[in-house]
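Lecture notes, part 5. Sequence design as translation. It can be helpful to think of inverse folding as translation between two languages: the language of shapes and the language of residues. The source text, in structure tokens, appears below.
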């Protein structure tokens, strides 16, 4: 009886105070709802950030490039090469750059970090590594923000590249030199990181490499003598057969001679040693074929000539042919008359005369 009375009293009190209980439970649930909403928002923002980065629609991309005022210099002339970094506005806290070069042709005189170049706002101000290894032909520059806990630097220019650093170089030998970004097999962070050369930001509290592309720099260095002869040396005779006193007559049917270049490049012209029978002006027509006589160029015509004295007749192709060293080709030539008005000089052992001019 006492138990039933106690239950009855508790039930009546619970009904009378249900508004108070409801209010208490509501207040207790507010922090839980707020925290759940905040967590969902953070998760959604993080997922959106990753999705945008994956589709290259976000600013989470960085590019590196090498720039100089011009691309042609003389031997001994000091050249400044800027290492430019564009983060697209993404805060970054670290970056390392390794640059390779031909040590037999180029000398690196020094490296200036971006923070020491007054005309460009420095993006990374803490110099971690700055060295030149002449024996390897490499430059290594590793920089950070110098801020505690790896916090990203927030003040870089979003619309134009900043200068990460500057190289000062000069040539030892004449020729072409490429300065290029090097990448190690093992990156610092993540499967998408590029290794020795990277640009780091924080993504969900973890380091992420946002470097997506880099542009190398090609420089040409010349001496005064080379500069004067550049046009003459741009194309050189590669394969040839220049001996002979025999005469092989040419009509309008093609005859050919095989050749195998020792260099790859652009074949812009050929020459054969030829003369004419009788009087009047003549020309020769030539083309390049593969070893199976399939045409690789349209036929082209030499300038006109007259007389029986043989000489080298050059034939220039309007569209150069890219040829590969070690591959067999043929020079096929004909005369301009239905009768044998032209002869092609040959050696009965070595074959027909010819010259090929390969340009670089």
């Amino acid at each position: 009886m006492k138990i039933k009375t106690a239950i009855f009293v508790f039930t009546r009190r619970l009904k009378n105070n249900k508004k108070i209980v409801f209010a208490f439970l509501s207040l207790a649930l507010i922090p839980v709802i707020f925290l759940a909403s905040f967590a969902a928002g953070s998760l959604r923002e993080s997922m959106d950030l990753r999705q945008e980065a994956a589709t290259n629609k976000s600013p989470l991309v960085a590019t590196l490039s090498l720039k100089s005022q011009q691309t042609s210099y003389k031997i001994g002339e000091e050249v400044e090469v800027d290492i430019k970094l564009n983060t697209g506005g993404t805060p970054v806290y670290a970056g390392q750059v390794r640059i390779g070069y031909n040590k037999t042709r180029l000398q690196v005189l020094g490296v200036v970090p971006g923070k020491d170049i007054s005309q460009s706002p420095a993006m990374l101000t803490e110099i971690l590594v700055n060295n030149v290894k002449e024996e390897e032909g490499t430059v290594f520059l590793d920089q950070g923000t110098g801020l505690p806990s790896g916090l990203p630097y927030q003040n870089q220019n979003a619309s134009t590249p900043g200068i990460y650093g500057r190289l000062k170089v000069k040539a030892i030998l004449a020729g072409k030199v490429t300065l290029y970004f090097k990448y190690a097999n093992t990156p610092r962070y993540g499967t998408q990181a590029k290794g020795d050369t990277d640009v780091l930001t924080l993504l969900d509290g973890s380091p992420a490499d946002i470097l997506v592309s880099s542009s190398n720099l090609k420089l040409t260095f010349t001496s005064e003598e080379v500069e004067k002869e550049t046009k003459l040396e741009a194309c050189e005779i590669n394969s040839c057969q220049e001996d002979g006193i025999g005469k092989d007559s040419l009509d309008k049917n093609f005859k050919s001679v095989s050749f195998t270049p020792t260099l790859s490049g652009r074949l812009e012209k050929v020459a054969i040693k030829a003369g004419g029978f009788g009087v009047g002006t003549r020309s020769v027509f030539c083309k390049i074929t593969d070893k199976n006589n399939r045409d690789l160029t349209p036929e082209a015509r030499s300038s006109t000539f007259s007389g029986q004295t043989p000489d080298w007749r050059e034939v220039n192709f309007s569209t150069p042919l890219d040829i590969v060293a070690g591959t067999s080709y043929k020079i096929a030539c004909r005369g301009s008359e239905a009768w044998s008005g032209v002869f092609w000089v040959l050696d009965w052992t070595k074959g027909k005369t010819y010259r090929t001019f390969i340009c670089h």
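The translated text above is only one of many valid answers, since several sequences can fold into similar shapes. The two ends are 112 Å apart (CA to CA).
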